[in-house]
Each structure stands twice: as C-alpha cells, then as structure tokens.
Amino acid sequence: METYQNILVVIDPTTDEQKALKRAIDLASTIKSSGANQIKLCAFLSIFDFSYEMTTILSSDERDVMRQSVIKDKELWLENLINKLNPDIEINCQVVWHNRPFEAIIDRVIKQGYDLVIKGTHQHDKFKSVIFTPTDWHILRKCPCPVLLVKEHNWPSNGNILAALNVGSDEAEHHSLNVKITEEAKQLALLIQANVHLVNSFPGTPVNIAIEIPEFNSTEYNETMLKHHQQAMIAHANQFDISVVNTHVEEGLPETVIEQVAAKLDAELVILGTIGRTGISAALIGNTAEHVIDQLNCDVLALKPDGYISPLAD
Predict the structure, then answer these.
(1) Are 101 and 14 within 8 A, CB to CB?
(2) What is the distance in angstroms between the CA of the first residue and the CA of the last residue of the chain?
(3) Are residues 90 and 159 part of one domain?
(4) Could you say which of 72, 101, 120 is where a domain stops?
(5) Could you list the mean pLDDT of each consecutive 10-residue stretch along the chain, which spans 314 residues?
(6) What gap in Å lies between CA 197 and CA 265, rounded to an integer?
(7) Nearest to 259 by CA among 234, 291, 223
(8) In terms of domains, do 227 and 101 share one?
(9) CATH number at residue 179
C-alpha cells in the first residue's frame, strides 16, 4: 500500500506500553511485505515541564542546559523502548520541548509531509473536553493528514473494517469524502485481509414537526427516509463492488449507530471523515468523529476532505 510511506507515531511519555508504536510497526511491516519500496517511521515525543521555565534563580543558558538534559534522557528511554520491540523497520526518534503537544505534532506533519499520524487514545472526561480540548481532538480537527487513533482491539485476519458514510447528502464535500473513506477501507482491507462494511445513519422524525402538525405521518416519513438512504447506500456500494449484505442503514445519531454496528461486527477499525470544525461551534456541537472515539472499542481512522488546509499552516 503506497499511500502510507512516511508515518509519524506519537509516543505516550507516561507508559512503556506503546500501543500506537506497536500498531505502527505492524502496519509498516505489512505495507513493506506487500511490495512497498521504503517505509519511514518516526517515533515522536513532545515533552514540557513548566517548573524548568519558572526557575528564576537560573540563567536562560542554564535552563536550556536543563531542558537538553531532560530531552536526552527521554531520547535514551525511547531508543531503549524501541530496541525491546525489535522492529524489522528502521525507526527514527525525535524528542522536542513544547508546551502544546498537538501543535508540535501538527507542525511536524506540515514541515515533514507525513502521510499518517498514529496515536494511542484514552477515555476523555466529557465535561472537561468542552473547556480543555484533549490533544486527540485538536489533532482530529487540525491535522492535515489521516489520523489513526489506537485502542486495545487487535487486527485479526479476516476481521471487519467499518466505513462510516453520509450517503443521504447531496453536498459535494460529503460525496467526495464518502468516496475517499470507501477507497481507504478497500485498500486497507486488501492489505490486512479484512472485510469492508459500510454504515450510514439517518435522522428520525423531527419532534417539533410531530407536535406542531398532528396530521403529519411520522411512520411514512421514516419509511421514506429509510428507503432514500438505502437506495443511496446500494448505489454507492455497487460503485465499489461491495456486497449489499455488508451495508448497514439505520435510524439514529451517527455516533450511536456507528458504535452499535461496530460492536455487532466486532470491527477492528472504523474509518470516518472529519471536517475539522474549530472554534465555538466545535465546543458546542463537536464533530461526529469526536463523539465516536470515546465510545468505540476499536481503532479509528479519521480522514479530511480533499483540499483541507490546517489552521496551523503558515
């Protein structure tokens, strides 16, 4: 698979169990064995300790020496950690001093042209996420390349990849993203010997309409919506030679439907698109990808629309 030749792996400084690094090594090894010429992996760690910046009794040069000492210690720790994994892929290590990890990661992606970012993820506090957005969410919104968020689920042979689509929309952006997500699912499925499933949700009858218009037939409305989305899904599946048996169209919120179908299939990976919403709308509304990552018990691969430009780009 030639899409991912240059991969950035985000290291978790709090643990020796680096699930993102292990996933990256497995994926890179599989890509290499499929005939790819050169795969580059970079293990990237962003560290910061505010106490070093506030040590006023030391000169700026002395503080710099302290920072470099900490960086060197982390480089040795990271190199030792990688050696224990005994990878058959060459891995470059980089440790930087930065107080905002997501900015350090995205800046590296932009400057070095990485094809994929792989990062382990954890459960987030729902209330705190509104005020202090986790690094995962910043990366999902602002990283210009695909982001693979890794959990504990294995990638077994003949497993299931679930591609989350929005086939009911007439918007060109959604259509192109549906194509991109499905193509990605097909390529990955071929690479790791998995089955591709497609999922699409649609909204039920708006509550205000049912209340304000008593004669409104909600059952007929739901049936019409279901038929519309099923037809659109079948047309999309046929375009990519995916069996109708592997399509799932259900009423409900996207994050709920995706989680339920992924659990039913025991999917190893969910692929979805994120439009990179930022600002107050992101805080109040959020993106489907952000709602999904905390609920799923499998990896999530988030893709941006073609032409997306990160707000952190110069």
Answers:
(1) no
(2) 30
(3) no
(4) 120
(5) 84 91 93 81 92 68 85 95 89 94 96 95 66 78 93 90 89 87 96 95 70 66 87 96 96 91 96 69 54 85 90 82
(6) 9
(7) 291
(8) no
(9) 3.40.50.12370
